[in-house]
Amino acid sequence: MARRRQIYEGKAKILFEGPEPGTIVQYFKDDATAFNAQKKGIITGKGVLNNRISEYLMTRLGEIGIPTHFIRRLNMREQLVREVEIIPLEVVVRNVAAGSLATRLGIAEGTRLPRSIIEYYYKNDALQDPLVSEEHITAFGWAATHDLDDMVQLALRVNDFLTGLMLGVGIALVDFKLEFGRLYENDEMRIVLADEISPDNCRLWDSRTGEKMDKDRFRRDLGKVEEGYQEVARRLGILPEA
Ligand code: C5P
User: Fold this and answer.
1) At a CB cut-off of 8 Å and minimum separation 6, what does 64 contact?
2) C-alpha 201 to ligand 1 mean position (Å)
3) N or C, which end of the chain has less CB nearby within 10 Å?
4) Does residue 138 contact residue 122 with C-beta atoms inside 8 Å?
5) Do 162 and 173 meet the contact criterion of CB atoms below 8 Å apart?
6) Are residues 127 and 18 located together in one domain of the fold?
7) Which of 39, 43, 54, 92 to mutate to test the pocket of ligand 1 (most atoms within 8 A of CB)?
8) What proportion of the chain, given as a percentage, has pLDDT over 70?
């Protein structure tokens, strides 16, 4: 089979032209980066696990009516998705203080937040994805107010659903990052969930012991990185056969 045309290579994924117009193939790599690519490494088997985990979570979200770009998983490392126009924002939802919020505001990591907090970051590697406000987003035209409203509503629904789903398997959903895209279909535009949802972009702690099962194991040199991702897949009941 002729190799598909590569459209884009990111830090953790490669995007190829899909088999039909309006489709894209997402290939999941084992490469891991942190701190704006200052730290680089390989987590063996990560791509396979993230492909599975993201397939599972996007499918469950689709079932409750959250529009996503996901179509189907193709093989161990690839999934077919709809081509969307990516909105240049990272939408972070936080339930418990951790990471940059804990550092920026001096709140002890692990402190439950009074309510879920949404933050926006402008997707720009050269600027190291700066924190931005709704004012910046609408003034600079990255998203219109009604698009941002849609994203917030969807992000909160994703948070409610995933919090429950994870808690059911003994995992606390501390925070996570979402990306959205514009999907054009029949002369209409819809905002849909894009990218991936995996331990690369969620903080997942064992709800009993607090043990980290996400990319912080790599960021903070905690060891057993792949094992953390595997444990998430195992608890979700989707661990791929060795
Ligand atoms: O680093 P910070 O605390 O702001 O991260 C919040 C959440 O967003 C974490 O779950 C992290 O994995 C995710 N994130 C991400 N991609 C980034 C920045 C953060 O997936 N570029």
Assistant:
1) 157, 161
2) 6
3) N
4) no
5) yes
6) no
7) 92
8) 98
pLDDT, tens digit (0-9, with 9 covering 90-100), for 161-205:
999 999 999 999 999 999 999 999 999 999 999 999 999 999 999
Pocket perturbation via mutation, ligand 1, pick of 201, 213, 219 by most ligand atoms within 8 A of CB: 201
- 76 and 171 assigned to the same domain: no
Calculate how far, in angstroms, residue 162's C-alpha sits from the geometric centre of ligand 1. Answer: 16
Q: Which atom of ligand 1 is nearest to the CA of 119?
A: 4
On whether residue 123 sits in a domain, the answer given is yes
Query: Which domain CATH number covers 144?
Result: 3.30.470.20
97 Cβ closer than 6 Å to some ligand 1 atom: no
Residue 69's domain comprises 6-82
| Whether residue 125 sits in one domain with residue 72 | no
What's the pTM?
Answer: 0.97
Number of domains within the chain: 2
State the ipTM, two decimals. Answer: 0.99
CATH of the domain at 54: 3.30.200.20
In a domain, 242, yes or no: no
pLDDT in tens, 73-104: 999 999 999 999 999 999 999 999 999 999 99
33 lines ligand 1 (CB under 6 A): no
The one-character DSSP state at 125 is: G
User: Which ligand 1 atom minimizes the distance to the CA of 202?
Assistant: 10
Q: How far apart are CA 179 and CA 195, in angstroms?
A: 6
Secondary structure class of 96 (helix, strand, coil): strand
Residue 204 and residue 166 in contact, taking contact as beta carbons nearer than 8 Å: yes
Q: Which tokens hold the place of 209?
A: 């012991």
Can you tell me the mean pLDDT for 53-62?
A: 98
Q: How sure is the predictor about 115, in pLDDT bands with cuts at 50, 70 and 90?
A: very high
- Atom nearest to 175 CA in ligand 1: 10
17 CB within 6 A, ligand 1: no
